[in-house]
Amino acid sequence: MSIALLYDRPGPRTRRRIQAVSIIVGLVLAALVVLVILRLAAQGQLTEEKWGPVINPANPFFIALWANLGLAMLRNAEAAVLAMGFSLLLGAVLAVTRISLPRWGRWSVVAPMEFFRGLPVVIAIFFAARVLPELGVSLPLLWYLVIGLTAYNSVIIAEIVRAGIASLPRGQAEAAAAVGLTHGQALRLILVPQAVRVMLPALISQLVVIFKDTSLGFVIQYVEAVRFVGIAIQQLRNPLQLYLTIGVIFILINYGLSRLAVWAEWRLTRVRPGAVLPKATTTLVPGEPTLTGTSAAGG
Amino acid sequence: MDIIFDNIGLYRDGFITTLQICLYAAVGSLLLGTVIATFRVSPLPPLRAAGTAWVTVFRNCPLTIVLFFCAFGLPELGIKGAYFWFGITGLVLYTSAFVCEAVRSGINAVAPGQAEAARAVGLTFTQSLRDVVLPQALRSVVPPLGSVIIAMVKNSAIVGAFGVGGDLFSVQARLTSAQGLSLIPVLLGVALGYLIITIPAGLALGVIERRVAVMR
Question: Tens of pLDDT along B76-130?
């Protein structure tokens, strides 16, 4: 349903009224922002001392802060890319195993999947960092974070892959069987390549979730952006300013990734020449990914 | 297993604190998220812009940073309180963005004829949204909202990692660092506490989802 259906196209009088109310609402919202800024100024949060290291290149801390912050962000990215790679591999294996097993054998895959899906990611990470060393596996901190993130996200990706394969028309699997392909060949040659097209937006959304969750590295003292800021504020004494800075960086990166997901969705669903599709219905959310995974659920 | 049973009281208290956090945060984020969703479909451009900005900010910002802001930022604005409430506030702000998107997709799923009919009989925007569109949207939105709330329960562990003190996640710190108990069984107990909430909730949601699918 389109947003335009919720109210009639405004006439001249309504347009004037909407304009007037909009101005009032806009002023109220602006006043709120000003109030917050004034409050912060009164608390001494807008001083050069607090903001200098972030925005003033002449500040003695500026270069060191941004260089180290950049390195810390790279450590987030490193963990996210590794976790995404392993989750994709493991997720695809889990999904294919689950589909291929006979019905009575599926619980052997489903039970561990349900366990890791129900577990908070922060506990999975904590678990990996504390339990693995006790079992004699000691790794760099990065890998505990990657293992914790993979344990959770591979399950989610397995679900995305399964939904992607299930969304294909039955005829695809039947035709593959009819031309004599084995189950494995059908999956590899026919089903998975098509499913990837459907899944791509959901997979990109999941990457946003993983990237956000790399900030949980702070619970195991992995020095990523959030932990780095925690260390930096001990010297710079400007927690609000620094957290605002990394907050904005995270939002920009993830917003970019979300736009990429929307773009991929648009690329994959647009009408190709010669294809006959029903007329697209207008929606409020053009290009809302059809398989949103858990990114729609807040990780 | 003995470690869990010997400290069952501590686990129970942690479990109850976690449930409390989740209950307050669920009510808060459902209400706030629905309000933001109505902002996003309203005829007033500033409200739509504010709603979009809200969702963009809180959906793309790690919960960790939102929580830091609630703990450090709100006191600077003159809002004082216990960390317990700041933790819940952070969880509400973060979750409301996801609730908003779920409700909005529910509004999209309502048949266009419903809103057209509401307008045809002369209902205003507020009336048609409140009396016709939202009740139907909320019904079809139960499964996605359920996933949002389950994710929120799991995210409440992050609130605990910050040290709400006394929630399920912090039971672990008290038993291992204070009493020096072996880590693996203690952590398994904590994990079990969350699974007791999330797995039945997920199963119930699956049942509801199938029911809704049959009704359509």
Answer: 787 887 788 888 999 999 999 999 998 888 888 788 888 888 888 888 888 888 8
* Secondary structure of residue A178 in the 3-state scheme: helix
In eight-state DSSP terms, residue B131 is I
Mean pLDDT of all residues in A16-44: 88
> What does the H/E/C string look like for A260-295?
HHHHHHHHHHCCCCCCCCCCCCCCCCCCCCCCCCCH
pTM of the model: 0.84
- How far, in whole angstroms, is CA A258 from its chain's centroid? 8
Domain boundaries, chain B: 2-215
Residues 98 through 157 of chain A touching chain B, CB cutoff 8 Å:
114-115, 117-123, 126-127, 130-131, 134
Domain B2-215 has CATH 1.10.10.60: no
Looking at beta carbons, which residues of chain A come within 8 Å of B62?
A: 212-213, 215-216, 226, 250
| Min Cα–Cα distance to chain A from B17, Å | 16
DSSP A107-130: HHHHHHHHHHHHS-HHHHHHHHHH
What residues of chain B lie within 8 A of the CB of A256, using their CB?
none
Answer yes or no: is the ipTM higher than 0.90: no
> Which residue numbers in chain B have pLDDT < 70?
1-3, 163-166, 177-181, 212-216
CB A161 within 8 A of CB A99: no
A105 vs A121: CA distance, rounded Å: 27
Tally of CB atoms within 10 A around A140: 9
- Chain B residues 68-97 with a CB less than 8 Å from chain A: 68-69, 72-73, 76-78, 94-95, 97
